[in-house]
Amino acid sequence: MFKTRQESHHTTLARTLAEQVRKFVDEQIIPNESLLSKDRNTTFLLHAELISKARSAGLWGLFHPLSYGGKIASLEDYLLIAEQEGRSEFSSTIFGSDTSLDTHMLFKFGSDEIRKNFLEPLVNGQAIPSYGMTEPGRSGSIPALIETSAQLSKGYWVINGRKWFISNIDRATFTTVLARTADNGEALDKNLSMIIVPTGTAGFKIERQIRIMGSDLSQGEISFMNVQVPEQNLLGKCGSGTFLMSQRLGMGRLLRSMSWLALAQRCMDLMGARINSDRGKIARLPEKQLVRQHFANVYEAIASARELIRVAAKSIDAQSPNDIEINVAKLAASRALCIASDSAIQLYGAEGISELTPLSGISRIARASRILDGTAEALVSSTGRRLINFYNENRAYQFV
């Protein structure tokens, strides 16, 4: 009984915070989207002002570790907040939600020194993280192909290599790098490690910015030329990189899925507004069968993805992550966003593909969602293989 009351209390808190976040997004972020969509340098002061307002309202870093200022302990409860935070593509930096994955990784696997040097500045808003896994000319989903190396010498890791499609790289203060720390003869699960590299370290270089579908989404390519960082910058244990990568991917895929779900809901809201507007009524949009079909399809996709995300989040909260549930949730969230953005653009016509609505920006994110954190094809293949292997030993799959 006590446990049930505690869970009810946490969910009630999450709902209260979600309502506050929704109001903040509606009143502070959405009215400024046209300005926020301009060059980051020209909107720096506006970003800083909105971040300050979010902090003052107690809405910044809600999913950071509880002992570091966070207010929500479980992914399942955070879903209620994330689907409100993410209704604008500009919200993640304003609410500090784009650092949640790194704060949890540093908290769970970082030493006391790493927590002091990197986690504390991160939760205080004085640091910005990035993550280096994928390499030029290599598939990001195959860790065995990673060539970036880190050799231990006199108490320092000496790192050489290149990484690309690194988020936040134009403003990051440190990068968590997946590097090879053992000879190729070692088993893969003992071959890779994660090491934290401050971006100001000698030998660290931003080679170029990479535009995504014609837009600047803070992606870039970086190189390491005999970069030296202290031995204690190792995250977790030496050789645990494959395990840490799986831990990061599981939570990362769900956090991204939650933000995609939120954008899908934004598209649905925009559809409802257009259909019931004076223009929509003049065009008799509410009466048209295909318009109704669009709306029903979007609702079905969002509702299905939302439940799949909730189930997958519950497995992570229970510290027994289910890769099948996580991967299917990611696929469903991506599909929901693609369906919702495409349907909304169809209803808005030329306005939908212009800068007059947020839909063109959302559509870029929708297309990228089929690639980020594992391509749709790779996840479908992996999930299908695991399900087939399951039936090789079992007669029925239990949905719980």
Automatic annotation (TrEMBL):
GO cellular component, one term: cytoplasm
UniProt-listed CDD domains: ACAD
Domain Acyl-CoA dehydrogenase/oxidase C-terminal: start-end pairs: 240-387
CC cofactor: FAD
TM region(s), chain numbering: none
Domain of life: Bacteria
A GO MF term: flavin adenine dinucleotide binding
Name of the molecule in the record: Acyl-CoA dehydrogenase
Organism (species): Nitrosomonas communis
